[in-house]
Design brief:
Helix content: 55-70%
Largest sheet: 7 strands, antiparallel
Number of helices: 8
Radius of gyration: 21 Å
Shape: globular
Number of strands: 7
Strand content: 5-15%
Order of helices and strands: HEEEEHEEHHEHHHH
Structural class: alpha+beta
Amino acid sequence: MSSFNHTVIEEFRANAGHVGGPFAGSELILLTTTGARSGKPHTVPLGFVREDGRLLVVASAAGADRHPAWYHNLLARPLVQVETGAEEYEAVAVPAEGARRDELFAHVVRAEPGYGEYQERTCRVLPVVELRRTHEVPSGEGGIAGKLLDVHGWLRAQLALVRDLAREEPQGGGGRASLGLQLRQHCLAFCHSLEFHHRSEDAGLFPYLEQQHPHMGEFFRRIGAEHAAIARLQDELVRALDAPGTGFSERVERMSRELEAHLDGEEAQLLPVLRALGA
């Protein structure tokens, strides 16, 4: 991180989003991505434009001929953290494509003409990225049981969105050269979240519960085997993103069936235990 960005970030966080210097009077956000290679968090201050309740950011790099690092990061890891002056939340970063990108860029330039000047400086098409807040519908239940239901609810909703997008993709004839960025980003967000959730269960929640309920050991071993099987399906799904025409939609449908059965079975066994523990 440059010393300039570091200073802006510190000032932003210390003053509820207000900064001075060259950004005085401007609205900024802080966008935190995960390094595509390092796996470490990477935070940058960015200007933005609102559109239908969403935030748009442009990978302009002030008109440089290369995309900024944060753009490459979000292509690899679409789940990002957004800080405004008033709140912080998670979002899925989705670059717009084709006519949608052109429409959004025109909207951005009307609001902030400087982005038009940046585009004139370079031959690359400046990406416009929509930051789509991950709308989790709270279960209304507290404790670990409520958190489990909330995570499962988000996974179900995200997979349903991926399934719907996959069904809209053109089929046959060997497939397109690439799948749409909207489908790709949501699929990766789902897969990364699922992987993190299952690892957290295997390493933390399940060992704790087995200590409290040793008779459930066989159940946890079975669930662990299901996690491994789902991980294999997940890996196949991610690889299929780069090889369209190889039954991607069918892989999504299979993942949907397997995951729904897994989540239903896990909830049936775990929720009564978690509620009894008051956890």
